[in-house]
Specification:
This protein is α+β, with helices and mostly antiparallel strands. The chain folds into 2 domains: about 50 residues; about 150 residues, OB fold (Dihydrolipoamide Acetyltransferase, E2P) (Beta Barrel). It has 7 helices and 7 strands, in the order αββαββααβββααα. The protein has a 5-stranded mixed barrel with strand order 1-2-4-6-5.
Length: about 210
């Protein structure tokens, strides 16, 4: 009887040993499978990232209302949201900020009626005022979308200003109020500027009037 119990105990011990060993092997096998699946997922995500096209431009965008033009080089934009406006109050210089009217000044990139005209003092002054007047007349109170760069050195915004599908910077060139002023880096709108300048030249408007070319 004692021998029988001894044999039975040995059998139970061996069985439990085999059972726990099987559990450990199963757990390890399951872990390996999980790690293998996880690696495949990470590899797939990495491949997807590598295949994605890189963005050419990282844009900063703000929205507002065309408020006024104080010169031919920039436009004043009214920011409707007080919270959005306050983001700029500690960044922009006083000449680029109007607190009572909740406006910020955006300098127009790649254009300048002031630098484009050189036909005598009186004509130059009239031209600058006329270009500002035309901008104000056509775009006043329009909703704007502005792709801007913030200059920490000058404490100002330089931007491409859009209203609907119209790019106001390109509009100035198209109507002969400015030449397309090239910078070190060509903008995405480079071809639009070139086409606008060719159209102004063809139509002989603004800077391209026949009498100014003589």
């Amino acid at each position: 009887m004692f021998i029988f119990r001894k044999i039975f105990s040995i059998i139970i011990f061996i069985y439990l040993n085999l059972f726990f060993h099987f559990q450990v092997v199963s757990a390890e096998d399951s872990l390996l499978k999980t790690e293998n699946i996880r690696k495949k997922l990470f590899d797939r995500m990495d491949d997807r990232k590598k295949k994605q096209a890189l963005r050419k431009v990282s844009e900063n965008i703000l929205f507002g209302i065309f408020s006024r033009v104080s010169d031919s080089e920039s436009v004043w934009v009214r920011i409707e949201s007080r919270t959005d406006f306050r983001k700029w109050t500690f960044k922009l210089s006083k000449k680029n900020l109007n607190l009572p009217r909740q406006e910020i000044r955006v300098w127009l990139k790649y254009v300048s009626p002031k630098l484009s005209v050189s036909f005598g003092k009186d004509y130059n002054e009239w031209f600058r005022k006329k270009s500002a007047f035309e901008m104000q007349k056509i775009f006043y109170n329009r909703k704007l979308r502005i792709n801007y760069d913030y200059s920490e050195k000058l404490f100002r915004l330089d931007g491409m200003v859009w209203t609907g599908d119209t790019n106001i910077n390109v509009w100035l060139v198209k109507n002969g109020w400015s030449f397309y002023l090239l910078d070190n880096d060509l903008p995405i709108e480079h071809n639009d500027f070139l086409a606008a300048e060719n159209e102004a030249k063809k139509n002989q408007v603004g800077l391209w009037k026949a009498e100014l070319q003589e």
